[in-house]
Design goal:
single chain; 365 residues; alpha+beta; Phosphorylase Kinase, domain 1; Aminoglycoside 3'-phosphotransferase, Chain: A, domain 2; 2 domains; two-stranded antiparallel ribbon; 11% strand; globular; binds adenosine-5'-diphosphate; binds 2-acetamido-2-deoxy-1-O-phosphono-alpha-D-glucopyranose; binds magnesium ion
Length: 365
């Protein structure tokens, strides 16, 4: 429930975007781990409503540069989708709305930053994949997103430095171990050992991509399933959550999507016996992705696709574990040990993927 003081704050922030009609409802929306997200409906019944977000400033230190990225990328995508005829795409893209004075965000008197997107009409999201068709659609949407940004030559700021950099994440982890309580270290004993055991083999992918001079591309960097909107017929409409659109290896997007899609359990399932790796969804996703990416992907990039889910699942598991040891300062949590449970699921998934690795490589050959 939203209390009246928060409601007034939200309604006030929203009013600075000068949108038609009067506000009918404001509700918390979605289950992102970072920003505070609300759905706003208005008296304009023909419009699908809006997404109002308070941007997480602890995570995004420079909101101005963050929003410059989002404005540039959303403009580029809309233009491309207008210019490219038919069948490649559903034609949808995330649309950022400007304030009355044409700014991409509003800063209120308490220093909170707000932004508004058009609610994508008739869109739905999923926390978990329900079918191979859906996995295929997710792959297609992510491949298309990367493809549409190939000819983006504008500025892209690094909104979170070293976002998927393993050395940086391991340094943060070492730091967290030093300052963590004995109790949390004890509880996380198995997970801490897992990191120590696996970390060296995780370095190989990036080392080879660097050695082979594989170019960085503009990618999404946070391709979990609930950052993809679908229509009610099951077709992927577009990607959302552009906060981390930055330069990176395409493997980050491929691997992160598999981390969620091919796991039959939730990202934070408390019973790790529920975790299993769905090779059919991996296959379907790969097919959808490569249908788009085949036009730009290089042989070296392709060689590492099958490994990328290991890398990304490890990096994100490591971040959950680090946050747990730090006392949960980064990801939103709903219960005690939530971040530890999230880390456990990731590490369990890695062990299950190890068994399927040969089949994963075969799929991509
Ligand atoms: P976070 O960074 O916290 O994950 P997101 O930008 O991903 O925030 O938004 C949270 C949720 O809000 C999404 O998972 C999705 O359900 C919903 N959402 C965000 N933008 C839109 C949009 N333009 N149209 C419809 N739903 C949206
Ligand atoms: C966060 O914002 P959201 O919930 O889409 C996080 C991702 C993690 C993900 C794990 C900016 O994504 O990096 O992979 O949680 N986003 C940021 O679920 O840190
Ligand atoms: Mg999100």
């Amino acid at each position: 429930m939203i209390d009246s003081s928060l409601y007034n704050q939200l309604a006030d922030a929203f009013s600075h975007f000068n949108l038609p009609g009067s506000v009918c409802s404001i509700e918390r929306f979605g289950s992102g781990h970072i920003n505070d997200t609300y759905r706003v409906t208005t008296s304009e019944k023909d419009l699908p409503g809006y997404i109002l977000q308070r941007i997480n400033e602890r995570v995004f230190k420079n909101v101005h540069l963050l929003m410059e990225n989002i404005e540039n990328v959303t403009n580029h995508l809309s233009k491309k989708l207008r210019d490219i005829p038919g069948n490649i795409s559903t034609g949808e893209s995330l649309r950022l709305l400007l304030t009355a004075d044409q700014k991409p965000y509003f800063k209120d008197s308490s220093g909170n930053y707000w932004r508004v997107f058009l609610f994508v009409m008739d869109s739905v999201i999923f926390q978990k994949a329900m079918s191979s068709e859906q996995a295929y659609e997710a792959g297609r949407a992510i491949g298309e997103f990367q493809y549409l940004l190939i000819d983006y030559h504008g500025v892209i700021h690094e909104t979170i430095p070293g976002f998927h950099n393993l050395d940086k994440r391991l340094m943060e982890f070492d730091q967290a171990i030093k300052s963590a309580s004995n109790k949390s270290i004890q509880k996380a004993e198995n997970e801490v050992s897992f990191v120590e055991r696996e970390k060296d083999q995780m370095r190989e992918m990036i080392a080879d991509l660097k050695l082979e001079n594989v170019a960085l591309r503009i990618i999404h960097n946070d391709t979990k399933l609930n950052n993809i909107l679908f229509n009610k017929q099951g077709r992927a409409l577009c990607l959302i959550d552009f906060d981390t659109v930055m330069k990176g290896y395409i493997h980050y997007d491929f691997g992160d999507a598999i981390r969620i899609l091919a796991n039959s359990a939730d990202e934070d399932e408390p019973d790790i016996q529920q975790v299993s790796f769905n090779l059919d969804y991996f296959k379907a996703f790969s097919r959808g992705y490569l249908e788009q990416a085949n036009v730009f992907i290089s042989p070296t990039e392709k060689k590492w696709l099958a490994f990328s889910p290991f890398y990304m699942t490890f990096i994100i598991g490591l971040r959950f574990l680090t946050d747990y040891l730090n006392g949960d300062t980064y990801f939103k949590i709903n219960r005690e040990d939530h971040n530890l449970q999230r880390a456990r699921v990731q590490f369990r998934l890695i062990s299950l993927m190890e068994v399927k690795y040969d089949s994963m490589r075969e799929v991509l050959q």
